[in-house]
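Continuing the series of single-chain predictions for the mutant panel. This is the parent chain; the variants come on the following pages.
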Amino acid sequence: MSSPVQVTGLAEARALLSLPYAGEDYGLADCPVILVELSSADLSQWPSPETTDLVKSTPAVMVASVPDDRDPADAPKLAEVCAPFDIVLASGGLPAALGVPPDEISQIAAAATASPAAAVALVQLLRLSEGRSTADGLVAESLAYSTLQSGPQFQGWLATQPSRLVPDNPEPAVLAQRTGSTLRLTLNRPERHNAFSAEMRDGLVEQLRAAWADPSLDGIVINGAGPTFCSGGDLAEFGTTPDPGTAHRVRSVRSAAFWIDRLAAKTRAMVHGTCVGAGVELPAYAHDVAAHPDTTFRLPEVAMGLVPGAGGTVSIARRIGRQRLCCFALTNTEIDAATALAWGLIDRISTS
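Parent structure:
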């Protein structure tokens, strides 16, 4: 495995990133990770607009390493210094959702080496979407996801997957039940651990569009049947879209994320068991997310050569921050309900 690029000090990083061929060298590297080791002195010299722009425009995973001897009084300045980076390594506590343990650099480098195109696309997408509207973020995410579907990392991963026979289920993929002014939408493919299929997506979109047009509804609850809330995209359907352009077109006009976001103030999500991919991304749009104590959360897309594609680069980033999401998605880390609550990915832990 290639080692991450080690840059000693901010001045050297600035010089390297200013070179006209830096983007090509780092963006096409086998391990597109640049580690900038900040010193205490850097806190008094940063930021200059030029350096900030260099960090945010470089097509690589930009990681900052924060010095252990930092002065607690420098916390506001430290947050400003770290803001342009994709991931921040720090021992001890950091204000806001910034720091991850320094020893995670090996896991970050391994992930970027295994899927370099997806790693670069992820950080560029998260930078681009920060502060933009949901609609803009979803379009950018769909373009990145659809493009990567034809890439060698995803195609190689797809070739290793066994053929999957989808059990016949005569029931709708989404069950809708109205009680008074509350609509309950239940993901209903328990035999597939509620894998997010085209039928399930279309069922959610249909119900949510109708809910948006119904002013008498004041509450929407989204839950899942069986032992799993949602195990992510249905692998039996992966790679079945004829071309990336068609995939993007369908994803743009049939977006459950878009409609949940429009109805977020009315929507509660109740998750349990395994939440993977779409099972993490879609609930994050709701104004209230309750998780059973046994719930786990994971974003595996980068390991497959993709980026999150069900709206998570918008919804999860708003809940836990761009930098924490970057590390979470890049490293394919599984977290439990307590960690999700501490991060802000969910709002409460509940057994009901």
